[in-house]
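Cross-check.
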Amino acid sequence: MVVALSPTLVTEDEALSLVETVMQHSQAEEVVVTVSNSEASLTRYSENQISQNVNSTNFSLSITSYFGQRSATASTTELELEAILTTLNRSEELARIAPEDPEWVPVLPPQTYADRVPAFDLETAHLSPLVRAQQVQQVCEQSARAKVEGSGTLSTEAELYAIGNSQGLRACNRLTQADFSFTARIDNGSGWTQRTGWSLAQIPIAELTETVIERAYAARNPREVSPGVYPVVFDGAAFDTLLSWVMFNLDARAADEGRSFMSKVDEQGKPLGNRLGETLFSPQVNVRRDPGHPLLQTGTFSGGGLKQDQLDIIKEGVPQALAYSRYWAQKQGVEPRGNMYPFVMQDCDQSLDDLIRQTERGILVNRAWYVRYVNPRTLEVTGMTRDGTFWIEAGKIAIRLKICDSIKACQTCSRPLMG
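Predicted model, tokenized:
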């Protein structure tokens, strides 16, 4: 057995060399090559002890060959030249007999990407199972001292993604990510949180653990509340779950075809375009795509090679942009923008405690769970709460609530999204 003390990722030079190898041997009219390589490690714990430790390394080289408007993709998980050439031949053979693609677009030309390097934290990438276990052990000991049952995960990942094509496009990004989740349970009370970052050092594990333990104690002995309409304050993790539904549904094609909350339709339901420029949210809502944000520092391009730059998405409650695939952008005569991720919502000078203090009577939701569609045309979603839902009285958390019925949220109203 060989113990790897550092990530087994291919280097950027090696990844781009693999791309060049395919280019040199390709017989297709056009070809696109992607290289994906990741090493992920995870420690799982429950009842204040480690229960699982796993590590996985994944490598994939995908080749898409084009003959006119016909194309096919083949992939391999091997690095050897023979395997790569076999994969290339397979993609070319399949492309020759594939049906023509009615949504074909030309191969992407070279792009101009942002002049920055995505975050790749060496300490996070090289984190050993021992160090990860020591971090988890501290959480378990903190939980045991508080007499709660702690469970959750701590994971780290190092990733490389490269793309190249016969038009001269070449790009490669390396990234790291750490993720921590924690659930504390005592009697009939529980609390939860989750936090991610490009570096493990960004995540205040001890502080988060203490906050969740306090919330679990406060969540004991829940009481029922009468059904009704109440102001709601969302914890950040709960709000992120709902905001993600808005971002995912800002798709230009769905809007233009009448399938989205961003669609304009006539009385017969016939599509009349989209609702860009209309006030759909509270003026307090400002969201932008910002992969270079200090807390994110993600890749400079999307999976298809499109540049991933800063973009205003919602400004003072008014949608400014929709996500255009290359095909739909070509059809509509606009510039393709890719998806809306990663997004950042502009904060304010008020903390969660400040919002609670300003609420005379309302509900604090710590976690939005099992959120699903009700109607994509109105962007109504339904879900449940768990791990700490509290009644707010006179600006203070009064009692934990027992809520069995589903909650509904409509993201297209003009009310503030944060209650």
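The first strand starts at residue 30 and ends at 46. The two ends are 55 Å apart (CA to CA). Passed to J.P. for a second look.
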